[in-house]
Amino acid sequence: MKPLPPGSTIGIIGGGQLGRMMAMAAAQLGYRCHIYAPEASGPASDVSAKWVQGRYDDAQALLAFAKGVSVVTFEFENIEPAPLKPLAAKTPLYPPLSALEIGQDRIREKRFAADCGGRTADWAEVNSRADLDIALVKIGVPAILKTVRFGYDGKGQARIMRPEDADAAWEALGPGAPLILEAMVPFQHEFSLIVARDSAGRVAFYDVPANVHKDGILAQSTVPAPDPVLEQVPAARSFARKLAEKLDYVGVFTIEFFAGKEGPVFNEMAPRVHNSGHWTIEGAETSQFENHFRAITGLPLGSTKTRGKMIQMDNLIGDQADDWLELAAEPGVHLHLYGKHEARPGRKMGHVTRISE
Ligand SMILES: Nc1ncnc2c1ncn2[C@@H]1O[C@H](COP(=O)(O)OP(=O)(O)OP(=O)(O)O)[C@@H](O)[C@H]1O
Ligand SMILES: [Mg+2]
Questions:
Q1: Best mutation site among 267, 273, 348, 351 for ligand 1, i.e. most ligand atoms within 8 A of its Cβ?
Q2: Nearest CA to ligand 1 atom 31
Q3: What is the pLDDT of residues 170-201, one digit of tens each?
Q4: Is the pLDDT of residue 357 over 90?
Q5: Which residue has the CA at smallest separation from atom 13 of ligand 1?
Q6: Which of 206, 204, 192 is nearest to 294 (CA)?
Q7: Which domains, and CATH codes, for the chain?
């Protein structure tokens, strides 16, 4: 890939906090960003050169947007791939559409993970109330019913702890959307791999954060992860390498794992930068955002080495961001606020990173 010169413009599809932090990293490298999103404005609009409002399924509008940029990427995976095909035929689009197609579909993702030699929770497709009973016999309880597509931050999920919970779970999610029933994986720890891959196939891994979720939303990531997680990192990395090669992936991606009794259990992959990688902004020599742009613009990948001994990233969810002044006053705290106007419960408003030497 010929390196994209500074001063060039990069298109980002999606305008949330990931787009905001992406645009800030791109600016540091001398690039300008144009954002394409359905809303009138968003966290990324404060820090980008242009905001184009358009629907994610409007292939013509996406094509017109791409005319003004040299390369296109995305910060949001819950978009239909088909309307992006005409764009991808004209303008370089990274990561590849195949990664988007797989990463947004929990069934395709699990099949693909298995093809790459990974282990997943036991699962079954659920397309009717009768399917759910059959799936529960096969999988047992506890289990989680999830929408196959368009889930995020624990949305589109219902836990089935006892067989009697099946009706409530079905009422919450069915009928209509395709569903998947997953066995609940018993785990001590969750962790994620944040991986950068360039067009020449070079791969760089970050240190692995251990992640704690509350109500299905990421609450905290810490580096280094505890020993039982570190033992599973080599297996997780060789799996990720295979997955990236099969997709001919370019950019940053993330895989979430459960640290299971017999090794890493694949949970899901995100074909993009990830909340569990926000610690890399101050905690690594090159952030996940910068390395994403380095990969998609043909620059050499930057060092992923961790800075400092212990790093902790805490999300500010809902009214937790009200403490911004106290947090700003705390020595050594790196405060990030996403510029969202309304602090709804469960909404990611910002994050803080603490690094100890
Ligand atoms: N099969 C499972 N076994 C045990 N815990 C699970 C399982 N599936 C989900 N969870 C728990 O719920 C959390 C959120 O689930 P998942 O990653 O599928 O959701 P999501 O909505 O795609 O989240 P996000 O996009 O924010 O990562 C997981 O990180 C884990 O803590
Ligand atoms: Mg997840």
A1: 267
A2: 213
A3: 999 988 899 999 999 999 999 999 999 999 99
A4: no
A5: 216
A6: 204
A7: 9-93 (3.40.50.20), 122-183 (3.30.1490.20), 189-356 (3.30.470.20)
